[in-house]
Amino acid sequence: QVNLVESGGGSVRAGGSLRLSCVASGYTFTTDCVGWFRQAPGKEREAVAAVITSSDMIYYTDSVKGRFTISQDNSKKTVYLQMDRVKDEDTAMYYCAAGFSGGTWNGGTYQYWGQGTQVTVSS
Predict the structure, then answer these.
(1) Could you tell me the end-to-end alpha-carbon distance of the chain, in angstroms, rounded to an integer?
(2) pLDDT at residue number 66
(3) DSSP bridge partners of 47
(4) Arithmetic mean of pLDDT, 31-49
(5) pLDDT digits (tens, 9 = 90+) for 66-121
(6) Burial category of 5 from C-beta neighbours within 10 Å (exposed 0-12, middle 13-18, buried 19 and up)
């Protein structure tokens, strides 16, 4: 059984930092595209960042470029999302996804999803 578990969310002041972690069990990220997504109340889910684990190719949505960093640690079966200089608009539930099966990194199909970790940014 594949499980993805996110952690690291919480409340942070605008301009601060958080590091989210996505740990896999029953699955390895060795050759995959692992993505971070977010969904704010009343809004559609949005792709934030993704990493092609075999090549380390990385993608970011424009609104987080220069502030967020996605990275991986295959030995720990973990993908991280370092969030720096956070803004109010970063408030959302953050999900990681894996088991990419095709399409674009931000619009394609991911087979496995975690339960999410809440990030709340206050001014």
Answers:
(1) 40
(2) 98
(3) 37
(4) 96
(5) 999 999 998 888 999 999 999 999 999 999 999 999 999 999 999 999 999 999 99
(6) middle
Q: Name 104's bridge partners.
A: none
CB atoms within 10 A of CB 16: 13
For 123, the token pair is: 């001014």
Give dist(CA 63, CA 73) in Å, integer.
25
Nearest to 19 by CA among 41, 49, 61: 49
Phi-psi region of 15 (alpha: psi -120 to 50; beta: other; left: phi over 0): left
CA distance 29 to 89: 29
Those residues with Cβ within 8 angstroms of residue 88's Cβ, 6 or more apart along the chain or in another chain: 14, 121, 122, 123
CA 50 to chain centre: 7
